[in-house]
Hints:
The protein folds into two domains: 4-203 and 286-316, TIM Barrel, CATH 3.20.20; 206-282, no CATH class. The protein is built from 14 helices and eleven strands. The protein has helices spanning 4-9, 26-34, 48-61, 77-86, 103-108, 120-129, 152-160, 176-184, 194-197, 206-213, 236-244, 251-258, 262-268, 292-308, and strands at 15-17, 39-42, 66-71, 91-95, 112-117, 133-137, 143-144, 167-170, 189-192, 220-223, 230-233. Helix 2 (26-34) runs parallel beside helix 3, helix 3 packs parallel to helix 4 and helix 8 packs across helix 14 (292-308).
Amino acid sequence: MKNRITKLLSIKYPIIQAGMIWCSDWNLASAVSNAGGLGIIGSGSMYPDVLKENIINCKNATNQPFAVNIPLLYPNVEEHIKSIIDLKVPIVFTSAGNPNTWTKELKSKNIKVIHVVSSVKFALKAQSSGVDAVVAEGFEAGGHNGREETTSLCLIPDIAKEINIPLIAAGGIVDGRSMLAAMILGADAVQMGTRFVASKESSAHKNFKNIVLKAKDGDTKLTLKEITPVRMMKNKFYQEISDFYENNPTKEQLLKKLGRARAKLGMFEGDLDEGELEIGQASSQINEYFKCCDIVNQIMDEFISLKSKISFDDKFNF
């Protein structure tokens, strides 16, 4: 399957695994890349030495392209950038910050740069900074999210008609059906986080994986917009935050209540009561977990089957 993204990234399928904190180490990234998609190491939860180890292990585990996701507001971003350049990582996904900061430097080293956005405004800003593609992440997505609360159904076509570079859709996409829908709306590829959390190679704790499989419609909520908007599963900690809002807390009070390492506690260490369980709305559609190769094959089989039943104009170009 050839289109702008598969050619740009030298991958077989236009399926990209999101770089999620505590869930996407080198095991997951290499497994997705070996399956024909693009695996991403999530560096936001890694110290510099841990990221280096993950990059080296990933290069040993796959001969296919992979990427590293870097939240640009990360405290050790300079060290992460140096490791990526020194170890010749081919692709970087940037998020949570100004793409102007590092895009030029990375591209000067022949590294492809893709930036995550949640609005047309930021998509145009990313394009003007020189990135190779953008990820349009809709309101349905798990983890840290945009403040605009624009759903993928609206965001994807809005951005597609305004930019000239390739577009990757994210948020609420878990299977071949939603992948096909995203591409009809104008995307060249899809990025999936929630779907790969519930995989055998994910570094998420088994307790977190199991509760994702049990998720129902309405079990997640976007909250903490005063700090950084985050979609999480409703649990004891979420209820405490919800109750806290009844007293109109200040930003400082919310930060104190949140504390440190809540995501690690829930997603990596498996504390389902006190941890922050970041996951997308589409978790309600996942009922069992598989190896990444099986997930990618299932998605592509469904995508191809459905696509063959629909008559497309040439403008879709895939």
